[in-house]
Amino acid sequence: MPLSMTKIAYTSRTIEDLRQWVEADEEAHMRTRYRPTRHAEMIGGSLYWIMDHALVARCEILGFDERPDGHWTIRLAGRLVLVDPIPRRAHQGWRYLEETKAPRDLAPGEVAGDAIPVRLAGRLAKLGLI
Description:
Blueprint: E1 4-8, H1 15-22, E2 27-32, H2 39-42, E3 46-51, E4 54-66, E5 72-77, E6 81-87, E7 94-97, H3 118-126
Parallel strand pairs: 1-3
Antiparallel strand pairs: 1-7, 2-5, 3-4, 4-5, 4-6
């Protein structure tokens, strides 16, 4: 199973903003200062986006390219897949995510958070109630 990573979608206010950026072309490119140590394991995995303290969507990781300035480009598939939101604290940079801990993809037409809003679900989970 490929390794995945999480990152805050800090330039996007909404999922639709994120979708427009990701799906503008066949590939989306994201710059990072350092290449992940386990980058070879991540090709074919996903980058999970954090919004409003929850993992909400993912993009497939296609590869890593070094830039002339010494930074790295993470190449992402130009398709945003919505996932069943799970609470996730904000963090700087990126973090690894094992596939066994990743949220499931939402089926076409399925709406996230129908039953419980994400922030409330996070608080209830901290209390051990869900």
